[in-house]
Specification:
With 298 residues, this protein is mainly α. It is built from seven helices and three strands, in the order ααβααααββα. The chain has helices at residues 8-18, 20-29, 37-44, 49-52, 59-85, 97-100, 113-297; strands spanning 33-36, 102-104, 108-111. A three-stranded antiparallel β-sheet has the order 1-3-2.
Length: 298
Amino acid sequence: LRPGDFQPALIANQLRYAGVLEALRVSRNWFSHRYKHAEFYERYYQLAKDELKDFNGSEREKCQLLVNMVAFQIWELMQETDAVEGDDESKNMSFRVDNVGLQVGKTKVFLRHKTFEYLEYLRGRIIVNHVNKINALLRGRIARKQYKKRMTAVMSAQTYARRFIAVLKAKSILRRNAAATKIQKTWRGGRDLARYKLIKLLVAWTQAHFRGWEGREQFRQLQEDQKKRKEEQKQILQEKQRKLEEEQRKLQEKQKKLEEEQKKMEEEQKKVEEEQRKLEEEKKQMEEEQRKAEEEQR
């Protein structure tokens, strides 16, 4: 054996005698593609998304429902393809899931090669639709941005043009208004000056009379207030003097009470001294008696 030295006839005989070619032919004619339930559902659920959206069940039940929904679409594609190719045998076949080439097992979903191609065609068509929608959205967004930029540029140009025209009109209007204002100002100034002088004279005369009357009233009010304040001060002084007299009288009464209490205390002290003197005399008598008693005992 040498590397890279292959004999096609020998290799074909080896594959034929080993049964590989027969196994491939059987696999291709029957169920050549096998998917687990989760893989099959994840790959092809877009073909019946609306029906599976609210369905709650196990993975096998979901795959069974998906196969039932997709089988009719595959059968229709098979009918169209066979009609184009001129195959009359499939036209006489009734619709059954088994005839389509789909089988749901306990752990896997089995597909024939032709059925797998139809499924991929349907899946590719949905993916193309999604891609077209995404492209449409992106292109629409880009187009809107470009449109906004163009409209912004157009509006900016219109703004500057209208501003220039408006400035010219405003200047013209301002010149006319300035001339009219100057004429009006001169005429109104003379009229208002005469009116002002007359009003000033009337106001001065009115103010003079009013201020004179107001001053007299204020002077009278001040005199009355001064009298009231003097009377109030006099009453306050009298009240204070009366209170002072009452307080002085109370103090004198307290002083008298204190003197009386002092006298009582002096009398009590005298009594206490008298009692103490008596107690001393009694004590002396008792000592003499005790001394006499001692002498008698001797």
